[in-house]
Amino acid sequence: MIFPNLQVLAFQNEPDNFRGITWGADIKDVPDMVLKTDAENRKYYVRKDDKLKIGSAELDTLYYVFTNEKFSSVMIEFRSLSNAKALKEALFEQHGQGYRTKTVKEIYVWTGTKVGIAFEYNHIMGRGEIRYFFLPMLNAERLG
Asked: Where do the structural domains in the chain lie, given as residue ranges?
């Protein structure tokens, strides 16, 4: 997903970490991670004893993604309209309304100076995801 590069889209409470892990942190400095998938320079981890909830919403998966051993993004997957509503409400409360894209899917995007967040829910499939991206690493990947 491409994040709009507009100053007007800056959002409130831009996170400098996710669940206590600072963006760009080295994997060796993050305890309790279990490798789930290794895809060349990108590795997907889960955290031991991580709660698969945000507020009242139940999550299917929560992956911590490390690119070249550095914390670069988070991928959250969920099911059901009730979870989608609860997650969207939590994001709105924390970061403001976000930017709604004009697509069939329900998609909201928050773009900050260092972090981008994308919420997507497919009403037909009953599935969605939230992704957090550390923008300096995402931009370096695109250029490199």
From this structure: 8-143
d(Cα 114, Cα 63) in Å, to the nearest integer?
19
- Quote the CA–CA distance of 68 and 36 in Å, as a whole number: 16
Quote the mean pLDDT of the chain. 89
Does residue 106 contact residue 120 with C-beta atoms inside 8 Å?
yes
pLDDT score recorded for residue 11: 76
CA proximity to 108, closest of 14, 4, 8:
4
3-state secondary structure of 29: helix
So what's the pLDDT on residue 101? 79
| pLDDT score at 53 | 96
- The overall longest dimension of the chain from CA atoms, in Å, is 41
> Is the whole-model pTM more than 0.85?
yes
The answer regarding whether domain 8-143 maps to CATH 3.40.1000 reads: yes
CA–CA distance from 114 to each of 84, 110, 117 (Å)?
A: 25, 11, 10
